[in-house]
Design a protein that fits this description.
two-stranded antiparallel ribbon; 12 helices; globular
Length: about 325
């Protein structure tokens, strides 16, 4: 397994991680725990070390699932989880976000219990709370580091100014933000430039465009009734058709290289810098193997130029989230 370093002075992890969210929520057609655990175990056997979860996923059930999967192999895992979304008792959807210190303390302990571990390797604030100074939130996260409950700190979907303030409070090891061929905002909004200036690792989530860049999704009807992608603008109406035309162009390039469009899309993300560690998610072992084989695909300058020509920055049609979720980004 190829490895990469998270940030200038951070830990070494597998060059591709495994996003575990879809095993418990969002993308419909859920798998049973035994099947999900088999995927996680296969990933570890292939050399994947970075597993990504969150207390939001389920909610809560994904942490329990991951904890069960790694119970007898904790030493093989660099475990990342997140906090920040607030759920009322029994609620399936979050009612807001919180970065209050007391919420940080309660969230760390709850995640440790659900995961069944004595420490979390990388602890992210999932979304920034605009009503709490980032110094207060990260200051409390730093106390979890001092207590040995957490090793490294991260933020998700944070703005450059927030990153700088957080990093001045306690070193931030990783920033997690959506990044793929169809979500290239970090290139233009200062996020990539800031993490590189500060020596922070960059962890792209949804590097396959929520599965769209694999070419397997041909119609909105391909989604289960409870699949959250039905609510995302990029998967609706004229946006869907416009984005499918882009993916078909990527697919044509992939055929020329005798690879899948998903592998070409992943290889493109990996080619954007050795400081990127993408975390594609999957619920199926064959798709996991397909993703990992993208590590063997080296793109030439000509390949990258050809991809850029058919899928330039800003080409995707529609926002990446519904309006309410968009308001929580880049704070």
């Amino acid at each position: 397994m190829q490895t990469r370093t998270l940030g200038r002075n951070g830990p070494t992890v597998s060059a591709l991680g495994l996003g575990c969210m879809g095993m418990s929520m969002s993308y419909g057609n859920r798998v049973d725990d035994d099947s999900a655990i088999a995927v996680i175990h296969h990933a570890l056997e292939r050399g994947v070390t970075l597993l990504d979860t969150s207390d939001m996923y389920g909610p809560h059930t994904n942490e329990q699932l991951v904890g069960k999967a790694i119970a007898d192999r904790r030493d093989q895992v660099f475990l990342a989880t997140k906090f920040g979304f607030v759920f009322e008792p029994g609620a399936a959807r979050p009612t807001g976000v919180s970065g209050r210190p007391e919420y940080v303390r309660a969230s760390v302990d709850a995640s440790l219990k659900r995961l069944g571990v004595d420490h979390i390797d990388l602890y992210y604030q999932h979304r920034i709370d605009p009503n709490v100074p980032i110094e207060d939130t990260v200051g409390e996260m730093a106390r979890a580091v001092e207590a040995g409950k957490v090793r490294f700190l991260g933020l998700s979907e944070a703005a450059p100014a927030t990153l700088r303030r957080a990093h001045a409070t306690h070193p931030i090891t990783a920033l997690q933000t959506e990044y793929s061929l169809w979500s290239r905002d970090p290139e233009t909004d200062g996020v990539l430039a800031t993490v590189r200036a500060l020596g922070i690792g960059f962890v792209p989530y949804s590097p396959l465009g929520r599965g769209f860049l694999t070419g397997a999704i041909r119609s909105p009807e391909d989604f289960d009734a409870d699949d959250n992608r039905r609510n995302h603008p990029r998967f609706q109406g004229d946006n869907f058709a416009a984005n499918l035309a882009l993916v078909d162009k990527v697919n044509a390039l992939a055929r020329e290289r005798d690879v899948t469009p998903g592998q070409l899309a992943l290889a493109w993300v990996l080619a954007q810098g050795d400081d990127l560690v993408p975390i594609p998610g999957t619920k199926r072992i064959p798709y996991l193997d397909e993703n990992l084989d993208a590590l063997d695909l080296t793109l030439t300058a000509a390949d990258l130029a050809a991809i850029e020509a058919v899928f330039p920055t800003g080409a995707a049609a529609g926002q990446r989230y519904p309006e309410a979720s968009m308001a929580q980004l880049n704070r």
